[in-house]
């Protein structure tokens, strides 16, 4: 017979597996409970605004949002729950869903109101901190939900780091495993002429190709090889080779397919850089430091690259996995677009930082006058270019009102001057938005009208061709049917040309909105830069106000507020020169800004002479 001790030992041994099993079950239940709580928390946070509010106004806004969302969600549940219940369990499910819906319709709005009240209280409690932080020159970080000191130079460093990360991520997507290793043997390509021109391996990196191009370009530059009649041709061929190999997509296509049969037509899209094209088209080279790369240009650049990648993706069946991955990884992401805009704003802020230095270092009124006169001369030079007056008005108003707003909040009682400037800016932005809507409607209407007229002309030509064929292949005038095609092409070209002013007016409305928003953010970065004391930031704002006032005054005097793009001849001349300039730069040739303006003038004169000649011939014939 077992002793009590032995019996207890046997019971412990027998119960050990059960205890272990119970422990596992408890852990599973606990893990499931944590997952459910996490999911419920995510749903709650997505439904109600629970982030830390900046101040009392932000708390009130957040509270109203929560109350509204709760009410809307309750009504939606009241409607959706009975329907869902009826679909699952008929009449019984309908009434069960109705009960759940009624409960949700009561609970969700009440919860929203409670969360809203809590957010308002948090906002009021944070108001004192907000006032003190704002006076100290701190900025509210919307992501971290806290007050921070902003540093302009540090922002640029972060932008450069993020650029490097994005490039590394793209490079990582193009290969599997050891991406850093390069095969000892050269990569097999269909044609290596361009590689030989640059004197590089088919495995050469983008940096190696760039270095080789500059090295070879110096050897055969026409200005340095005056005695070599073939120098210009060599230099052009070298530039073309570099243009192909410096772009990931065109290089992949060249490695796979070799040189295209018709390089002039096939590579034209690849060699046209939208950034260069729009800079020439709008004459923005003199104002680029103030506006950066226009949004419309960067968007067109991204779209062209994406289209090229899609065209290459159509032939992915015949590609290697590495080539296909490189194409898929090359698409422009939202993160890249946002980073590019952030970099644009930081670069403008850094330029303005250097631009206002003479104002900050001025010792007396004479120095300030010298600064003012230099801005006036710069503005007059910009006004002499095409669309220069419009640029001046847009840039000038943005800089003037941003400086006025910052100074108003810093120097006037209760920030009255700042609020007045903010209202002035809001009113102007509203006007620009309405102009944008009007321009968009006008462009759409004009485009549809032109397409209908072209289609009507095509139908008329087809009817005429059919009648001519029925009469023996000749038209009534005895002309061959092929002449109808030429006439149809002329009509189509004429109608499409008539849409150009409306499209360009829309582009200008987009540019104005883009420039205003970009300069707003750039000025904010300049005025909140914690690397300098508040007194220096105030002086920066005063200098920016002076620049803006002079730009706006001179632009307005030159008619910049009432911009017009009705001169079709001027538009066509600029477009032609823009294409020539961007093609020349793509081939490695330097085209100065003064050269492009002179080419535009010559193109306009040639068109005017041609128009006058046609008019004279028409008179003589009559």
From TrEMBL:
InterPro entries: DnaJ_domain, DnaJ_domain_CS, DnaJ_X, EMIR, J_dom_sf. Residues 193-258 form the J domain. It comes from the Eukaryota. Signal peptide: none annotated. It comes from Cyclostephanos tholiformis. SMART domains: DnaJ. Residues 1-11, 460-479 have a biased composition (Basic and acidic residues). This is J domain-containing protein. Residues 1-31, 460-490 are annotated as: Disordered. PROSITE patterns: DNAJ_1, DNAJ_2. It holds the Pfam family DnaJ.
């Amino acid at each position: 017979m077992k002793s009590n001790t032995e019996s207890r030992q046997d019971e412990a041994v027998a119960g050990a597996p059960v205890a272990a099993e119970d422990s596992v079950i408890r852990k599973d239940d606990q893990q499931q409970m944590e997952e459910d709580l996490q999911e419920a928390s995510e749903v709650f946070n997505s439904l109600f605004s629970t982030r830390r509010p900046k101040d009392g106004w932000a708390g009130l806004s957040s509270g109203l949002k929560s109350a509204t969302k709760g009410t809307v969600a309750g009504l939606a549940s009241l409607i959706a729950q009975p329907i869902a219940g009826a679909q699952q369990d008929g009449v019984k499910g309908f009434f069960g869903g109705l009960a759940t819906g009624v409960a949700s319709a009561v609970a969700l709005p009440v919860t929203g109101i409670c969360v809203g009240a809590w957010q308002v209280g948090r906002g009021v409690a944070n108001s004192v901190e907000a006032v003190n932080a704002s006076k100290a020159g701190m900025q509210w970080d919307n992501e971290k939900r806290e007050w921070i000191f902003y540093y302009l130079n540090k922002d640029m460093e972060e932008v450069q780091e993020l650029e490097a990360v994005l490039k590394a991520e793209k490079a990582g997507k193009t290969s599997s495993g050891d991406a850093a290793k390069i095969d000892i043997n050269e990569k097999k390509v269909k044609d290596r002429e361009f590689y030989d021109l640059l004197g590089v391996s088919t495995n050469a990196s983008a940096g190696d190709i760039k270095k080789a191009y500059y090295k070879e370009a110096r050897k055969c530059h026409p200005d340095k090889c005056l005695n070599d009649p073939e120098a210009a041709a060599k230099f052009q061929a070298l530039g073309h080779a570099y243009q192909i190999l410096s772009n990931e997509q065109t290089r992949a296509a060249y490695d796979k397919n070799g040189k295209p049969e018709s390089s002039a037509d096939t590579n034209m899209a690849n060699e046209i850089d939208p950034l260069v094209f729009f800079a020439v088209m709008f004459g923005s080279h003199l104002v680029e430091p103030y506006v950066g790369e226009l949004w419309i240009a960067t968007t067109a650049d991204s779209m062209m690259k994406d289209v090229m990648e899609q065209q290459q993706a159509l032939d992915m069946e015949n590609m290697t996995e590495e080539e296909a991955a490189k194409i898929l990884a090359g698409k422009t992401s939202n993160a890249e677009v946002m980073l590019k805009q952030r970099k644009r704003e930081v670069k403008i802020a850094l330029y303005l930082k250097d631009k206002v230095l003479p104002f900050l270092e001025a010792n007396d009124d004479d120095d300030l006058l010298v600064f003012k006169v230099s801005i006036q001369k710069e503005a007059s030079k910009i006004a002499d270019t095409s669309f220069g007056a419009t640029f001046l008005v847009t840039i000038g108003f943005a800089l003037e009102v941003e400086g006025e707003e910052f100074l108003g909040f810093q120097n006037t009682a209760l920030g009255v001057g700042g609020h007045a400037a903010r209202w002035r800016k809001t009113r102007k932005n509203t006007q620009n938005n309405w102009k944008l809507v009007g321009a968009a409607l006008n462009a759409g209407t004009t485009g549809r009208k032109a397409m209908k007229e072209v289609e009507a002309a095509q139908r008329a030509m087809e009817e005429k061709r059919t009648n001519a064929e029925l009469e023996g292949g000749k038209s009534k005038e005895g002309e061959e049917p092929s002449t109808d095609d030429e006439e149809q092409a002329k009509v189509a070209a004429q109608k499409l040309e008539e849409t150009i002013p409306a499209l360009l007016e829309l582009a200008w409305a987009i540019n104005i909105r883009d420039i205003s928003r970009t300069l707003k953010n750039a000025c904010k970065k300049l005025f909140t830069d914690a690397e300098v004391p508040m007194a220096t930031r105030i002086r920066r704002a005063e200098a920016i106000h002076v620049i803006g006032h002079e730009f706006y005054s001179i632009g307005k005097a030159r008619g910049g507020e009432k911009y017009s793009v009705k001169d079709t001849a001027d538009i066509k001349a600029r477009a032609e020169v823009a294409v020539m300039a961007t093609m020349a730069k793509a081939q490695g040739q330097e085209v100065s800004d003064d050269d492009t303006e002179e080419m535009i003038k010559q193109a306009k004169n040639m068109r005017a002479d041609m128009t006058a000649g046609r008019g004279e011939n028409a008179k003589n014939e009559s």
